[in-house]
Prior knowledge:
With about 270 residues, this protein is an all-beta fold. About 0% of the residues lie in helices and about 55% in strands.
Amino acid sequence: MAVDVLAQDLRFPEGPAFDPQGDLWCVELKGAVLTRWSKGEVIRYDVGGAPNGLAFDRTGRAWFCDAQRNAVMRLDPRRGSVDTIARDLDGAPLNKPNDLAFDPAGNLVFTCPGDSRTDPSGMVCGLTPDGSVTKLLDGLYFPNGLAFTHGGAELVVAETYRQRLWKGRWDAQRARWIAPQPWADVGGNVDGVALGADTLLYLAVYGTGTITTVDRDGHVAGRHPLSGANPTNCAFDPSQVLGLVVTEAEHGRLLSLSSLGPGAGVFLGDATWP
């Protein structure tokens, strides 16, 4: 399988995502920037901190987690403004938020692993358009990537240091994760997650140099080798030209696996957010 290099010399790339215009973005965790890739041109937006996961709303604003500022942030590329959207839960600071995704109703779900590599103190949180932050699940060893499946009716979250996925029903109207349970054993430190139109979950498994696929029954269906040991996340190109795009941290590259896809699509945040 061909693996093409779209960009290199990135400082720990993470969180690939496509904006409503179809341009590809990622974050550079150690570069304190959001990076846009458009037809081979790389443009960087200085946002400070330690940006991690990335998602877009319908107006083209880039929402990202910041593990240094302990906040969910938002960049408006047209204005060049960076705003803090959420920074605490029940009066306590968010603990190194990591990855995030919008649901069909415009709610935002994000993971907060903190320093939970050896201590089960990580959690999954929900953020609604009125600014309320709620805890959806805690007691996890480094919750990380996440994806909505079955048209937004289910939520899947990666628990990296248990090398597994959790799954539960998702109530978008109440922003509640219902009966989440351990669901699939991956056999590696799963990081980012993307859903294919084939209903397979495509997992960036850090340290293995592979994209691993998991079927609807929670079984490993295949492994796709990469040019680099440390994939951090992945996303499908809605135009299907680039296939599955992967951020890879060992060599600091943005990769394209054009033979994979199409994706199932992701939800964009709507105009109910201020």
